[in-house]
Write a structure and sequence with these properties.
Elements (H helix, E strand, L loop, with lengths): L1 H22 L8 E5 L3 H15 L4 E5 L1 H11 L5 E5 H10 L9 E6 L1 E5 L19 E4 L5 H13 L2 H4 L3 E4 L2 H9 L5 E5 L12 E6 L6 E7 L6 H13 L1 H10 L2 E2 L5
Parallel strand pairs: 1-2, 1-3, 6-7, 6-8
Antiparallel strand pairs: 3-10, 4-10, 4-11, 5-8, 5-9
Helix pairs in contact: 1-3, 2-9, 3-4
């Protein structure tokens, strides 16, 4: 069973890697950053500002942080840099000697939240999900840090075993949100920043959880030996110092932290 499970995960990663490799059609000097799905809106908006200010472009491949880290470390996916969530994903790259001696820079923080279908009543606490009916979408903890944080919060609230049969596992946090918006589930555990997502009018914010899980941070790192890792560093420096970019992240609900010197 365990061997089959690992094989299925490897096949899943391989398929995603092939899709990324085949789908990229850009200039050789345009850096490719593998980034957490929850950053898709803010990074794409920031990249537009970056191009207007500098004339330079940036490409992204979005997905669950653990999936992306494994694509790079295990399958050699052509990333020039990463912008991922949590120590586990970055540890995969560090163990593969793909990060430089300085490690990585933490520049964003987040929280998790529960959203529901339109008309759903607010939750007094996560434990209230035990008494609600309907399926709950979360990122798969093996692929998505958001899913691991959701699992931690549910375990610490004592409801994990009670709601396990109602959980729908998705590849990343945005897929969990999509499952809710499409009507396939009644609840989803997402990031607090997703509450400000462009389709926010299609769901109800039920509760933002401030504790019960590990601190959520996003970190940037160029990949050692990649063709355009210096261009990645230039883009991240822009994100950290640009007033427009800071406004984009603030509006989305991310907590900002300056890059280390």
């Amino acid at each position: 069973m365990l061997i089959g499970r690992k094989l299925s995960l490897f096949v899943y990663l391989l398929i995603l890697f092939i899709l990324v490799a085949c789908g990229r059609d850009t200039e050789d000097d345009v850096p490719l950053i593998f980034a957490a799905a929850s950053l898709s809106d803010v990074l794409e908006d920031s990249a537009e500002v970056y191009e207007k200010r500098t004339g330079k472009q940036v490409d992204f491949s979005f997905g669950g942080s653990l999936t992306l880290a494994n694509q790079i470390a295990r399958l050699g996916a052509p990333a020039d840099g990463v912008f991922l969530v949590g120590d586990v994903a970055l540890g995969i790259l560090d163990d593969a000697d793909l990060l430089d001696a300085d490690g990585y820079d933490t520049i964003l923080f987040n929280q998790i939240a529960v959203i529901g279908s339109k008309g759903a009543k607010p939750l007094a606490g996560l434990v209230d999900l035990r008494d609600r009916t309907g399926r709950i979408a979360i990122g798969n903890p093996e692929l998505s840090p958001a899913g691991e944080y959701a699992k931690q919060a549910m375990e610490n609230s004592g409801i994990w075993e009670d709601v396990a049969v109602r959980l729908v596992m998705t590849s990343d946090v945005r897929s969990a949100m999509a499952a809710l918006i499409s009507g396939n589930v009644e609840f989803a555990v997402v990031y607090a920043s997703d509450i400000n997502y462009k389709d926010g009018e299609l769901f109800e914010q039920l509760i933002v959880l401030e504790e019960g899980y590990d601190r959520i941070f996003y970190a940037f790192a160029p990949i050692i030996g990649s063709a355009n890792n210096l261009a990645v560093s230039e883009f991240i420096s822009f994100l950290s110092n640009s007033f427009e970019s800071k406004e984009i992240f603030n509006a989305a609900g991310f907590g900002l932290h300056p890059l280390k010197d």
